[in-house]
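Comment thread on ticket #2218

A.B. wrote:
> Attaching the input chain for the structure job we discussed in standup.
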Amino acid sequence: MKQINTEIYEGDSKTVLKSFDSNSIDLIVTSPPYADRRMNTYGGVKPEKYVDWFLEISLELLRVLKPDGTFILNIKEKAENGERHTYVLELILALRNQGWLWTEEFIWHKKNSYPGKWPNRFRDSWERCLQFNKTRKFNMYQEEVMVPVGDWANTRLKNLSQTDKIRDNAKNKSGFGKNVSNWIDREMVYPTNVLNFATVCNNKNHSAAFPDELPEWFIKLFTKEFDTVLDPFAGSGTTLKVAKRMRRNSIGIDLMPEYVEMIKSELYTSKELLLFEKQTNYGKTKTK
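C.D. wrote:
> Ran it. Output below, let me know if you need it in another format.
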């Protein structure tokens, strides 16, 4: 029986990644500390310095990702002085200049976003999941994430008009149309690029853990069994735990010793988890 390997490294991603083989990773799924966040753990990178800070890491990610692999970056810009900061948009442009292809943008809709009130905006209920690739030809297993067609089909497809059975021009003369009869007898369809997952409500001992469903969806879409998934900001280890359950090899990196120990204690088996310690700093950090 083929063995699933789960590895966790302690240290700074841009340093630890240098020891990894080139073209060795099938999928990168990660959520780095957002600008000015996690001050007591990851140092709170300033928005003005965020792009330069991240490009050192993404350069190594570009090297270790396979040509047919995918990089998913979960990130959200902050509001500052009454307007949204542009560091995420600047990062997208900088990553393209670095050699990445910005292939797609998925929206993670948080179904249970925290309530709040601000004088000039509403509460955040979505985050970006940016898809980057090295080449235009990458592995994608779309059938693995198909969804039920929905109850609407029971009534809509019962009595089709003649125009429903051809690719009829839309009534607004846009030039676009659809053949509605193509939906007959279909139970499953391809999803949209909006992902509806609740935020994590249970305690994962981490201030910014994302739900299992998020990495699980991307792992289904972009990998197959025994592929290798990397999270260079492992945090509570969600990506690694999900990957192991889905029979993928996985590698995590995190700066904080307590997070590494937590992941190690939750995932450790003598044959399946290896711990590698390389201590460096992102910047100023504090540990409890």
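A.B. wrote:
> Thanks. Noting for the ticket: Residues 43 and 284 are 5 Å apart (CA to CA).
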